[in-house]
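Comment thread on ticket #2218

A.B. wrote:
> Attaching the input chain for the structure job we discussed in standup.
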Amino acid sequence: MSTGQRSILAMALAVALTGDAGLAQQAGQPSTVGVIKKNKAPVSNEVLRVKLPRPVEADLPNGARLMVLEDHRLPRVTFQIIIPGAGGYYDPETQIGLATYTAQMMREGTKARTSLQMSQELETMAANVAVGSGVSAQTATVSGGALTENFNRLFDIAADVLLNPTFPADEWDRLRTRVRAGLQQQRAQPAFLANERFNQVVYGKHPAGRISATPASLDAITREAMIEFHRTRYVPDHALFAFAGDITPAAARQLIETKLGAWKKAGTAAPTVEDPPAIGAAKVYLINRPNSVQTSLIVGTQSIRRTDPDYYALTAVNRVLGGTMGRLFRHLREEKGYTYGVGSGFGSTKYPSAWAANTDVRTEVTDAALTDLLADVADLRQTPVPVDEFNDAKRALVASFALALENPQALLGNYITSWTYGLPADYWDTYAARISAVTPEQAMAMARKYWDPARLHIVAVGDGAKINDVLARKGTLEVYDAEGRLVK
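C.D. wrote:
> Ran it. Output below, let me know if you need it in another format.
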């Protein structure tokens, strides 16, 4: 099948499989007030069967892996250099944020370019180079993209950023000042407070529980610490070079050899991760914010690894509950008007991730909204999803997958996921069929297995004077202030 034929096929299948749920997903939570479902949409019940184009892969002398997905329809190339072991997961406990700010500072100057010079070069090419790493991530990523005619120059900048950052002291002083102000401001944000407490509940002191640096850890991060982190963590031994677009494997390899020939194998062991401690019995946590007019709610627990066989069935039943136009959206927003938005989801990690449903509601409907949310979860544990509703949810998942096949960057992202988690070679060829094969009975079994009320923790940020008693009726209650200190 040619590239053009494959493109047409992906688009046709996406349209055929979309249906009401899929269209809603693309539109971004549209209102359904007054909508009458006539079940007459031209929806295909055929299982999407594809054999996706595969990237060319090869091992490089420095230990890295090369992955190239050619697509010459547009004169553009994007790249990612993924470096395991350079993420915030590996930050010292006293220097949380070290990986994140090391990545940011790599763009602030090199031996050959100042930050301003770099920005000016990129602007003239309408190109970009970014370096990023999360505070609990296991990897750092150098990424960018440019028109084909400018890609050689772009990759030269990227290589300079990767190999020769100077971590200018004045730039770090400016960044640290901005970060410190941000750390103060985020404690005024209900969403931050809710996520901070929830992550600590789910992960404890595990690195996955980190969502932000602290003033103390920021003070402990020095220029010398960033230089050392870069020297020891930014090594090619287990890295991935991933290219997509108007480039051949030979050209990509030549670029790496020319621009990054000095990036030699360091002989470091592959970075590892550990499971978080098992989550405790269900509790309710209130972060008290006097005079709040809304309550931010998170209901969740520990979930599964990305490689768990239950991944497909849990994905499907979660779509029914908290996906676009899912039950939570229909009940809490459309029928009751408690909130503007609500949803649920779970992470993709090498250790047990978190599953959570979250929403913001008016203070006066906190009890009703939380009761209805828990009732929707309970119903999926007690009653199989009606066939038509479940088929709509699965078609929406498959349609979303099919639409992404048209984008070479998204398609490459699937193969990066395969590399990250060691998924089978045909994983994405069979993904749609596996989603489609999930039954209502399997979905109910997932809800029973992972959404046991004895393991569901509730986090609420709001006015304790008005919602304390409401929450106390839901379970054992702990109360915190906005600084994260236990009050009672």
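A.B. wrote:
> Thanks. Noting for the ticket: The radius of gyration is 24 Å.
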